[in-house]
Design a protein that fits this description.
mainly beta; Lipocalin; 10-stranded antiparallel beta barrel; 0% helix; globular; disordered N terminus
Length: 167
């Protein structure tokens, strides 16, 4: 038996199925995280479309930030062996795929951790996903510059559904 012989829905958690569809996104972002300048928050709109992949073992979203003239994409994949999700981000400014954050859900909350760099210094990254019912969700991003002793919230997205999966 090889990997192609396995059933596609073999014990998948479907944690991110709630996200399939289209969303208006209210963004709030700290312009200078980790004390790299004055802490100013900016707000800007977004619109995201999320599509399933691999029978529930993944999804991809594309988000447009019309007032910024930028786009982003997120790839979420469920590692069947590790029983964890990885979340990968890229945006049109850099064209790079950022290092993933990895984790999972407990109830309606998902926590995902990873390592990256910010302005040349190593940081910890924490994403939180909150399922707030069928038509609302929240995403938060935090950075840590001290090995995880303290965390600074630097970006939130409040999502409101505008269309079902496939919209």
């Amino acid at each position: 038996m090889n990997d192609f012989d396995l059933p596609q829905d073999l014990d998948l958690p479907h944690d991110f199925d709630f996200l399939h569809g289209s969303w208006d996104v209210a963004n709030r972002r700290l312009t200078t995280p980790l004390g790299t300048g004055p802490g100013t928050w900016v707000e800007f709109p977004g619109h995201a479309v999320v599509r399933p992949l691999f029978g529930g073992a993944g999804n991809i979203d594309e988000i447009t930030f019309p007032t910024l003239g930028r786009q982003g994409a997120t790839l979420r994949l469920f590692d069947r062996a590790a029983r964890q999700w990885s979340i990968h981000w890229s945006d049109s400014r850099t064209g790079r795929l950022d290092p993933p954050v990895v984790g999972g859900f407990t109830g309606e909350r998902g926590d995902f951790h990873g390592e990256d760099t910010y302005e040349g210094r190593p940081i910890g990254v924490h994403f939180t996903w909150l399922r707030l019912g069928p038509d609302a969700a929240r995403w938060e991003q935090e950075f840590s510059g001290d090995g995880g002793r303290t965390w600074e919230l630097n970006w939130t997205m409040d999502l409101t559904r505008t269309g079902p999966a496939g919209a």
